[in-house]
Amino acid sequence: MATKTRVRSDLLTYVDREPTALWTLASLAAAAALVAARFHFASWAVLGMALIATLFTFGVLWAITLYPRTYLGSRWASTAFMVALFLLCDSIGQVGFQIQWRRSFEVNGAWKDFTDRGNAWRVRIPAKWQPFELYTPATGTVIFKPTRLTPAIEFSVTRHPRTKDQDLSAAVEAYYLNLPKSTDTKILAGAPFDYAPGLDAYRMVHQDPQQALVLRQENVFLFHGDDLYMLTVTAVPAWFNRFPADLDRFIRSLRFTA
Question: What is the mean predicted confidence (pLDDT) over 207-229?
Answer without folding.
Answer: 85
